[in-house]
Amino acid sequence: MRIPRLTATLGMAALLAFAGVATLSGSAAAETVLHRGNGTEPETLDPHKSTGVPEAWIQYDLFEGLVYPSAKAEADPGVAETWEVSDDGLTVTFHLREDAKWSDGSPVTAEDFVYSWRRLVDPETASDYAYFLWPVKNAKAITDGQAKLEEMGVAAPDARTFVVTLEQPTPYFVGSLMHTSTWPVKKDAVEKLGQEWTKPGNFVGNGPYTLAEWVPQSHLKVVKNPNFHDAASVTIDTVFYYPTEDIDQELKRYRAGELDITYDAPGQMIPWIEENMKDEFHNVPYLGTYFYAFNTTQAPFDQLALRQALTMAIDRETIVSKITQGGELPAYGWVPPGFEGYSQQQFDWAGMSPEKRVEEAKKLFAEAGFGPSKPLETEILYNTSENHKKVAIAVAGMWQDVFGKDAIKVSLRNEEWKVYLETRDQLQFQVVRAGWIGDYKDPYTFSGYLRSDIGEQNPAGYKSAKYDELMKQSEVEKDAKARMQVMEEGEKILLADVPIMPIYFYTNQNLVSKKVAGWEDNIMGWHPSRYMTVTR
């Protein structure tokens, strides 16, 4: 899973008044309000069209899928109370709860999932996450324009039964349904209002909260949904999400009491935070990889030697120890640690000494045809963030230190999140900053991301018939150990081709107020508001 700036800081008194908190003596008891930093302005709230973590944080409050992540990011019953998988692994039958309702009070039915899953794979939707449902019979053929929507392996024999037929047994399938792209949308709202259905006043969801306000570049407000089947256990009445692209400012707002939870923490401040705010700082392993992608579809990055040279020239240890400073791990491979049964892979040069690595990088750079007489001129694109800017400056500096300032000239370009996503998806860059967070607890969430048929989601335009074949093989392999070995072999091919430049494996860094209870650290970084409580 794939973070604009508030130009003014609201004072606490203003926030309290804005949140509807009673401040006059003798007035009614105040509602319970949670204030969350959220990284950036949401791209969209439509779960079939969004791609980023900031959107997902909000969608966990506004929607509920067949399964829903527990506070510890395990697959709990959601709209489906129970489910069973047939003996041959080809049919999954979900039994929906009778009290599942949309925020307008109408029932959530199996037909809602038939419509929503067809919409996700429909080529007209153009969802980056259509491939999430490709394990379903005929789903990929529909996305590729080779089958009709009605041929998808989904059925609603009655209002409370949703039957899914798979192309082949898929061990990770039910767990992958925790991803918000597979969650339902209401047909009449979408078809009547088009893109306007996600606006306040139009919005209909089925989650613990519903949308009340959305003021671009300021805040997004969700309020408790009284029609949610488990509304009685939801203790927070109102949640505000703020775009906090400027993470230095986000920290200031948190320290001023204006935020209860931050989306991130400034790298240069982490040592101070760990010393002075230890009880509020949550810095835990995160199932994600921070990387740069090369545009392999255009010169000069269609040259393997150049991609290898630039990747070898990066001092990852310095980046994580001097710049990010959050306990991140230098990444010499693609798939991060944390997957049971999977052996991490590395570049074949990962064990070289720094001196030998630099020497080899220079040779490859010259082999690609670049040097003082023919300097490489390139640009790094990143989405606006001080942390991303610092890493980009460091990477550009390392390239110039290794190859010489007269041999490589690097410019930096930042874009707001929505613009950046469009630029990246259209491959209108040379080198782009990117990050990928696992969507479920199986290495295929990383391996499948770089298949050539994924479309715009593939950040480098990478194409490898051998890699694709191994990924398809991993989808049908029934033996768990053999399946992991197939994906490991695929990663070896990927690292040899170097379409991406892994830099580090993430840690998740959040400040959480002592007034907030119910926050559970987990490797997925999922923290739905419904599990939390706030005291003032």
How does the SSE layout of this entry go?
Layout: H1 12-18, E1 33-37, H2 53-62, E2 67-69, E3 75-77, E4 80-85, E5 91-96, H3 110-121, H4 139-143, E6 154-158, E7 161-165, H5 173-176, H6 187-193, E8 209-215, E9 219-224, E10 238-242, H7 247-255, H8 270-276, E11 281-294, H9 304-312, H10 316-324, E12 329-330, H11 354-367, E13 376-383, H12 386-403, E14 408-415, H13 417-425, E15 431-437, H14 444-447, H15 465-476, H16 480-497, E16 500-511, E17 516-517, E18 533-534
Helix pairs in contact: 9-11, 15-16
Summarize the structure.
By secondary structure, this protein is of the alpha+beta class. The chain has 16 helices and 18 strands.
**What is the distance, rounded to the nearest whole angstrom, between the alpha carbons of the first and last residues?**
34 Å
Structural class: alpha+beta
Number of strands: 18
As laid out across the biggest beta sheet, the strand order is: 12-16-11-15-13-14
Mean pLDDT: 93
Uncertain runs: 3-28
Largest sheet entry:
6 strands, mixed
- Strand percentage lies at 15-25%
What shape does the CA trace take? globular
Overall radius of gyration: 24 Å
Count of discrete alpha- or pi-helical segments spanning 4 or more residues: 16
Determine the fraction of residues in helical runs and give it as a percent range.
25-40%
